[in-house]
Each structure stands twice: as structure tokens, then as C-alpha cells.
Amino acid sequence: MGHVISAYPMVGEDATRVHLLHQNAGLHAKVSYLTWFGHAVIAFWLLLPGGAGILHAQSSTGAEHAARAAQLVQAGDLKGAEAEMRQAVELSPKEPQYLARLGLILGMQRRPEAAAESFERALALDPNNLAVRRNLALSQWQMGRLAAARENLDLILKAEPGDAQALLLLGMVLIDARRYAAALAVAQAAAEAMPSSYRAHAVKALAEMRMQRFTDSAKSYARAAELNPNAPEVSVGLAMSLWASGSISESFATFEQGLKRFPEDAYHCLEYGRLLLKSAKPNDSAAEARSVALLQSALKLNSSLSGAHYLLGDLALRRGNTEAARQHLEQAVKLDPESSKIHFALFRTYRRLGRTEDAAREEEAFQKLKAKEEAAPAAPLLVGGVD
Amino acid sequence: MGQRVWRRSSVFLFWSLTMAGLLIAAFRGTSGISRAQVATSIFTDVTESAGITWKHFNGESPDAHLIETKNGGAAFLDFDQDGLLDIFLVNGGETPRGKSPAPVLNALYRNLGNGKFEEVAAKAGVDRRSSYGIAVAVGDYDNDGYPDALVTGYPERALFHNNRDGTFSEVAGYAGLKGSGRWSTGAAWFDYDRDGLLDLVVCHYGQMSFESAPRCEFRGTPTYCIPRSYGEGAPLALYHNNGDGTFADVSGPSGVAKSLGRGLGAVAVDVDDDGWIDLFVTRDGSPNLLLMNQRNGTFQDFAMDAEVAYDPNGVAKAGMGIDAADVNGDGRPDFVMTAFNSEYHSLFVNPGSFPFDDWTIPSSLGFLTMSYVGWGAHFLDYDNDGIMDLLIVSGHVNKIVELTRSDVTYKELPLLLHNDGNGKFRNMEDTAGPPFHAKYDARGLAVGDYDNDGDVDAAFIRLQDAPVLLRNNVGQDHGWVGIQLVGTKSNRDAIGSKLTVRVGDRKLVRWITGGASIFSSHDRRVVFGLGANPSPPVISVEIQWPDGMAQTVDGLAPGRYHRLVEPLGGTQ
Prior knowledge:
The complex is a heterodimer of chains A (387) and B (572). Chain A has 387 residues and is mostly helical. Chain A contains 19 helices and no strands. Chain A is globular, with a radius of gyration of 23 Å. Chain B has a five-stranded mixed β-sheet with strand order 1-39-38-34-35, with no helix packed on it. Chain B is mainly beta. Chain B contains eight helices and 40 strands. The A-B interface holds A 211-216, 244-248, 281-283, 314, 317-318, 340-341, 343-345, 348, 351, 363, 366, 370, 374, 376-386 and B 66, 214-219, 223-229, 232, 304, 307, 310-318, 339-343, 355, 361-364, 366-367, 371, 373, 397-398, 400-401, 403-408, 424.
């Protein structure tokens, strides 16, 4: 039982969504990993030895609670599954597998902190379980505890230097840590170890994007898209990297195809709207109207996209529609309080509304975030305004 | 403001450059390119025919020191006061692994008046210096009628005092302007306290060391690092002119040193029309500064209020070149700032209050400059239609950029942008001439009418190459009048003056600015384009002198330069 979780979920590519986007890439990627996390756990429970057979036993052993937890996971009742799994852990506190499963259920509920605690307890009992350590690293990455995640991934790779999944996760950790060159090296190794993994090529593409190797990035995304044409995040990444590399018409064609293929994907709408606005000639009212429509569609599909609120707010501010700007920007800042540009736009909006105290508060928040940005590491000077 | 209004019904104290017409005739006859040949070209590259052969050297090396990319100053100045603009060119320097086979020398090209120039830097004593050179700021700091020149760089600056005999003496140490150990970049002369003496502001980039510079690479090739890699920057320096050839460092008490940043360019102009000259300072990835003169020897930064510190996304652009002029005909100085590719160069329109209006997008400047890394930029009315157009020179810093994107090149086209009168710009690439179809790695840009024909010419530096001298072929198609102001109570260069000419129902306002563009100095004379209509027989100009006095001079004949001297004794 101890190593059942060794089926590290990242191999379940069909269930994985990794949004490898230029902007907010870390956030999108983490959300996607959480989605994958859920699918992986369901798959895991279904694979439990004798799992379904004991679901109806109704006894009070740890194994029976665990089996009921599996059933509840399948039914989508994560709270119930958590309660059952906690019972199992209470009855069998020395069983690392139960702690690991509890961690997975907590991860599915987007509670990476609690999940990490369970994984850590499991590892205390079974320190050589690399699968649990991977999941702990994943939770730590989700929490932004990049150093800890990296430490665990390094331990895995020391034991299993060819662990491609750990390499891939390490690539994402390094991207978030802004160690792009190291991330690229790791992603390259992962892509070589898993040449048919679209995700490996996508992580490589993201690292290349961050290193401003835009043409390389477009090639890697194109390869990822060949391997998995059904991944909307890859389609968006490809369109964005084409735009960054100067292939504007190809980029927009890719977006148009993506809109048709993935009509429910908010990121296609958001990023296409953003880049259309950025590329539009002055007074190109058609482009602007299309951008606005795309951004509004993005919000209909996913109202938590701070970027869409920001862009609509910024546009309203430019047009002198200060009240509309305020509404969008206040929404945006709630969704993404760490974005300096949103605070800056709100500062400008409040000033125009005569709300001097609010403006001062936003200016202070903006300045604090800008000071953090100044601490970024050295990078090649290729593109302006790169953080 | 208690300004004295001084008016005179007839021309007063003007000295027409009557030789100008003769010079023009002579020039056209000997330049080797007939007017018919260049009929469709606004500008012609006359570098070779002018005899300009000097080449720039920047010490490019595998170490990729950022200073290698941020240098190259040019100046138009009449150093010998013969009525012809000469050209001074600042060389870069060597780096530990970027050595030159020949000494790295500055150039001073004396204008011979026949379209030819003679290199006289060694004779004039301005060719050699021990520092890595970056920029030149020309100003007559001792009011003796002969222009002096500050050369910035690392690790020291040089102040070349004009000896009035065709030679200069280097006096930075005596003057207190050496700035040892500092990486000084753009500089501007201006009289911030209106005492009639030019003071000096100097930008600094950051900490500099050839031994411990940051390292970056792209696919294993060394490349230049982002500005942040050089730390958070350094403060500005402001030097008050003591009037005895020395300067006092007033950076602290004046308030200009409050903010650290990677300063590159500065333009001095009266932003709020209060008669006191202000400063716009561009900084590289640091917020720009708009230092408003508090009329008591101090400055306060209003860049956040004016919304010029950052772009609308809160990004501190790679602010480089800067210039001020009225682009929309409302009589207020507006600002252009060059920046990096993908950032767009900025156009800030001054509505007479804060915040300024960001016209980057509606002016088309954003769209036109998206792929460019802009350096020198200067407003000029190239066609003398009375509206200020824009000349920008560009060049990327990293040669490997072409490996990563298809829309940005290392060498880039210069841009001549025509203003429709309402602040909307159009690229004149089809008619601007062959130099605008050639790509350069350009840096400093200076403007000036070197052939005294009433249209503004230009010169710019190319890294590791010969500079380019552009002759304007079309300005004379429209009427014009040129003004040279000579301060008496005000600083002799009249930096800080505001000039207004009325043509029909149009009011043309110009300023004599300090600094402007990047690393460069310009013709201090002002040319007013009078447009396509028949020029009025006489022109009036209203002058607001830097010391606050207002004056109107009537009866100026178009088609020539007029030298107007500030009256000494109040109302006449």
C-alpha cells in the first residue's frame, strides 16, 4: 500500500491543464494544477486495491473509512471525503498512506497549506516515499514556498535523477522564482526525458518566454500544440509567443482558431483582447470594440479574471469614464491585490474623482510593490517594461 | 509676476545676419548636390561631402558593460563665433576588454561655410580626455559670448572653457564639476535662480565598475543586462554657478537629490509659465522626474501629479531622450520621451494643469515607435509650416535581439514624424530621404541650422561608426524668420526664454531650452516657420526673457536671422 501514490498525477496528461501564459503565468498554472490534482485523486481512488468492493462494508476500520472517502470523492463530496479520511487517520495514525490521501483531498479543496501538513506527516512516517514528497513540493509551490518546494524536488532528483515529473515541477518552481535560465535547463531535461509530453514542451516554452527567447518559445509551444491540440492553455501560449516574437498576424490567426476551438476558455478572450488593444492603431474603433467584447466575454466565462477588469478599467479611464473605471479597477484589485499596475490605475482614478485619501492609499500600495520589483535579478536587456 | 513689459514700435537692437543669404548661395553652389537632385528628399546625408570622417568607439566587449550602449553626444555650437555652427562629437572610450587600435578621441569640426568642415579638436584642445565620454552640454557659463562645453562620462567629467581664441582649457577640477567616481550621463545648463548665470544639472546612472559589472547572456552569448542590474540608480547633481568660474554643489539643499534613479536625459523649460525654469528628467526604468522650480532655490518633484513618472500601466519606462515644444498650438510646452521597444515613446501634452494628458496612443506615436529603441529626439519644424514636427533616432542595445523576434532589429531607421498641427504624427518615410531608409545604431541627436539657410538640419552619433550629418532641403519652401537672443541681465544664451510670434490667427510659441534630446546640445537660435502663405512683410516677436522681463520687437524681416539683445535698462 505504501507506494500506491507513486502514480504521480502529472503523468495523467489528459486530465491536466497547465496554463502556461506570459502574464500571471504562475497563478494560472497553479489553478490548472489544482484542476489536475482533483482528476488525479479520483483516478487514484478508483485504483485502490479492492476499493469499490469495500465501499459498502460499513465497518469502523481505517480501511473502511478510506474506502468511503473514495466513494465520496467520486461523488464530488470533498468535505464528506475529508471527514471520512480524517477518521481513517485517527484510527490508523501510523499509516502514511492515509495521511497522504488526506493530503490529496485537502489539495482538491484548494487548501494547499493543510495538504502540505498531511504530506509532511506522511513523510515523517515514510521519508523515502518520493511520490508523497512530490505532492508536498506541489503544495509548497502552490503556497509560494518556493525554497521549500525546491528543496524537496532536489531530494527527489537526487534519489531519482531521471524523475521527469519532478523535473517539470522544478521547472515551474524556478520560473516562479524568476530563475529562468535554470528553469529552462530543467524544462529542457524534462522535455528530453518525456519527448511526447506536451506539458514538458509547454514549460520549456514558458521559460523561454520569460527569458525573452520569443521565437524559441513559439517553436516550443507549437510542438506542445502538435502533441496536444486540445490544450487551450497551449493554444493561448502559442498565440502570445507569436505576438511577442513579432508575428502579429499569425498570433491573431491562432487566437481566432483558439476562440473557435475553445469557446469556453476565458484566457483566449482575455489575452486576445489585451493584445488587440495593444496593437491597435489610434482611433481604430473596430479593434477597440472587438477588444472590449472579448474582455467582457472573458469575464462572463470567468468573473475572477483581474486582468480583464483591469483592462476594461484602464480603457474607461482613458475615455474619461471614471466611474466605470473605478468599478472595474476595484474589482481587479480585490482579485489581485499584489498587482502594482492595478493600484496605479486606481490611484489615478481616485485622483480624478477627488478621493484624495483613497488615492494616497493606492499610491502607497503601488510604491511598495514597485520597490519589490526593483529587487528582480539581472536579465538580458531585450524588451522594455519587462519585470 | 511683476514683469516689466517693454515694447518698441520699430526694430530695436537687432543685427541681421545679412551674410546669411550669401552663405546660402555659396553653400548651395558647392555642396555637390543640386536642389533638383534632392527635390523629393526632405533630408540628405551630407556627412561625406562635409568631410566628416571621425568614427565613434564604445569599447564594445565580451563583458557587455552597459555603459558601452549609453553614450555618444553631439553638439552644434559656434565655438569661434564666426556665425557658422560647428560640430562637437563626444567619443566613448575603452573598456577592459574593448580596446581601440588608435587613441579614442573627441572631434570638433569647424564649419568652413562652404558645406565643408575641418577637424580641429586637437588644435582646440578638446580631443583627449582620460574618461569614458558620454554626453556634451554646451553653455556660455561665464557669459563671455563664447560657448563652453561640459563633457560627462565615467569616472570624471570635463569642462572645456572657451579661451576665445579657438582653443579650450579643461577646468572641471577648478570649477568643482569633476564628479569623480560618478557615472554621469545627460546634463543641461539653465539658470534656475534667475541670477543671470547658467547653473548646471547632471544626471547620473548608477554604480559603475568595470571590475564587478553584472553579467547576462542569451543562448550563451554575453548580452547587456537590464538597468536594474546596476542598482537603484544615483541622484541628480545640481551645481550653482558662483560667477567666478566655480560652482557650488547644491544637490541636497535644492531637493533634486531626493530620489535615486538611473538618469539619462534632461530638458529645462518653464513648464507652468511662471517665469521660472523647471526640469524634466528621464530615467531608465526608474520613474521620471518633473522638478518644478519653487522660486526659492529648491525644486519639488511633481511627476506623479503630472502622471509622467510612469506609463499608464505603472511601468517606469526606459526613459532616454526628452524634448519640449508646443505640439498642439496651445502655447504650452509638451514633452516627447523616447523609450525601449515594446514600450512606445511617450507624448505628454501639457493642459496647463496636472495631470498631463498622455497622447502616446492618440498621437500615433505609440504605434509608430513600438518596435524602436529611441535615443535622441528633438522637435523641429522641418518644413517651416509653423508646426513642430519630430525627429527621432534609434538603435537597439543588444545585437542578439534579432534572434528572438522578427519585428525588432539591432540597427533601426530614423523617424521623421510630421505633425498635423493637432499633435497627431505621421511617418514621412516616403519623402524624408535615403537616410530614413537606412538603419543605424544611433544615439545622440543634435539639431541646428549649420548652413544658415533658415531650415533646421541635424546630426547624430552612430555607435562604432561615423556620425550622420543631415541637411534639410525643404524648409526654405516656406517663409521663416530666425531669432538669436543675447541675454545681458539674463544668461547670455538666453536659456529659459519664451518667444511668441503671431502669424495671422496663429500664435507660434517656442522656448530656448537647456539640455534636450539625449547627450547632446543644439543651436540656440530659434527658427519660426511662417507657413505656405505669403510671409507678412514684417514680423513681431514677443520675448519673455529668463529674468522675467517681457519685450516685444516689431518689424523683423522674414527670411533671415535677427540677433536681439536684451535691453539693459528697463523700459525703453
